[in-house]
Amino acid sequence: MFSRPSLCGTVGKLCRCGTSATGITTVAAATVPAARHYHEVVGDIVCPSQVRGIDHIRDPRLNKGLAFTLEERQTLGIHGLQPARFKTQEEQLQLCKIAVNRYTEPLNKYLYLSDLYDRNERLFFRFLSENIEDLMPIVYTPTVGLACQRFGLIYRRPHGLFITYNDRGHIFDVMKNWPEPNVRAICVTDGERILGLGDLGACGMGIPVGKLALYTALAGIKPHQCLPILVDVGTNNIDLLEDPLYVGLRQKRVVGREYDDFIDEFMEAVVQRYGQNTLIQFEDFGNHNAFRFLDKYRNTYCTFNDDIQGTASVAVAGLYASKRITGKSFKDYTFLFAGAGEAAIGIADLTVKAMVQDGVPIEEAYNRIYMVDIDGLLTKSRKVGSLDGHKIHYAKDINPMTDLAEIVSTIKPSVLIGASAAAGIFTPEILRTMADNNERPVVFALSNPTSKAECTAEDAYKNTDARVIFSSGSPFPPVQVGDKTFYPGQGNNAYIFPGVGLGVICTGTHHIPDEMFLIAAQELANFVEPSDIERGSLYPPLSSIREVSMNIAVGVTKCAYDRGLASTYPEPQDKRKWLENQLYNFNYESSMPATWVWPRMPYIKTREESPLIAAIK
Ligand SMILES: NC(=O)C1=CN([C@@H]2O[C@H](COP(=O)(O)OP(=O)(O)OC[C@H]3O[C@@H](n4cnc5c(N)ncnc54)[C@H](OP(=O)(O)O)[C@@H]3O)[C@@H](O)[C@H]2O)C=CC1
Ligand SMILES: CC(=O)C(=O)O
Ligand SMILES: [Mg+2]
């Protein structure tokens, strides 16, 4: 149980369930109004028996499908509303598998899962968490990109909050309409840079919904503690503005002072509604805003930018793991980034930190990193203004070059990292040059979705005599070269943000230092087994990502207490166990009231009276 004052909530009446706030005290708690307990069908402690009849089945948080026992069906007044058969959650999971596999189109699988989420929350999350290799590509990249592009067509029910520019001055009031009182983690986007697909405006909502589904599925953070938000300030995507199916504000993006004031108000409203330590994950904002907001809010709010910091962490983990194959240390690497935006700069900055930690002097670390943006190599001779922000650190005193193939031939990088959203720019020629210059070239094609990757896994292996150490942002199928099959790993921030999120919200961390992302990178790299490397992957299999998330959360928790950033006290001794005790229960719980029952229909046999019913678990 997280250390927050309102642990249970039934609509509008003071709680008489006897539940008390946890004995753990937190600084955050002091900022929240005095603990008042309400019973609601929301949050952590629900009193399921208070929602009876068909409403019980219609509530996805209470619904268990055919797993309601005879006693529960009697007690809840739902007897007869379902067929006679009883099914365990395990049987239901088997059915889900059959059902989702009936669809061949990924978008139809996405819709099936979305319906399941609306119907039966625990079944959805258990299904997702136990089948992550098959289902992550559906709820996340690449299919979530398609779902965003078709958002106006497929939108059905609210999975998050839309706050539009018309709500300025009233954002707190809009936030009050979200029914959950105990949100701990928000993922927010303004839809300006959705994956590598550009400005999708309000259709970008699919991204925070998908990210937060992974918070639960991969790190066990309770779903009611997660809130996806789309701040709708318009879109500059002309196709969307002209599309009759577009569901967002039909106007150009609000910019400048008005936009900044709006985001300021949003941040303040989050704190007012949910407390100072509410985690706010910025996702898929445009480049020019992403860095500004990170700099502006990182020391005053509990916030991080996933595209900058989460991506940095997963990529640096891959670099750590690559050293085990190349046998080199960071000081022997030369890095070339195709892209100099959120992801690339984030990775470069954290790589510098990792190199410095490995004993490389900071100037030497910067010297080892070359970057290319849309205008070519970052050089000192560039016009003033074209080296804005963080780019300046990586500009080199060499002749300008614009052709990536020429740059690769000249710089001779040992590591080539793509985060450009420019599909196919790692041409066969470039990959062959990487192989000519390195015994084991390292190539990351991190852009999402699959259609935006700098190269395919197949191209990477086939143009390097299969010597490449490869990873990609979106999943690629295994590649067969000769008699060997390679299983490329997925260099995606999904390995990082759920574990960081768990550690941060459990500890009530005030703000999140970069150090936590370096710790996360090291935890992830430590989890990589020789067998993963052997099969061609720099990352552990997705099926073990829940264990990875827990290790990351433990590392983040230690850091939060060591650095005095935690506000949940007392400090737990056994941090892993303490974290585990706060996780979501993916299994159905009893729907029977603890102390009293409605009279059962007298002609129905009880478990004891009927051997048939007694056999049902
Ligand atoms: N795998 C993962 O976990 C993640 C992957 N990504 C992916 O990375 C990609 C980029 O995202 P992000 O960094 O946020 O976007 P940004 O818009 O911040 O950065 C894109 C960068 O690519 C540069 N660029 C564009 N076209 C080319 C080109 N043809 N050659 C060289 N450079 C080019 C841009 O140049 P300029 O600066 O001049 O505009 C810019 O520096 C997206 O596809 C995104 O999905 C992002 C986050 C996480
Ligand atoms: C993975 C991710 O965050 C992105 O592509 O934007
Ligand atoms: Mg992103």
TrEMBL record:
GO terms for cellular component: mitochondrion. Residues 117-298 form the Malic enzyme N-terminal domain. Keywords: Metal-binding, Oxidoreductase. The active site is at Y140, K211. A divalent metal cation binds at E283, D284, D307. SUPFAM superfamilies: Aminoacid dehydrogenase-like, N-terminal domain (SSF53223), NAD(P)-binding Rossmann-fold domains (SSF51735). GO terms for biological process: malate metabolic process. (S)-malate binds at R193, N448, N492. Divalent metal cations. Prefers magnesium or manganese. Its cofactor is Mn(2+); Mg(2+). Residues 308-561 form the Malic enzyme NAD-binding domain. One of its GO terms (molecular function) is metal ion binding. PROSITE patterns: MALIC_ENZYMES. Signal peptide: none annotated. Belongs to the malic enzymes family. This is Malic enzyme. It comes from Drosophila rhopaloa.
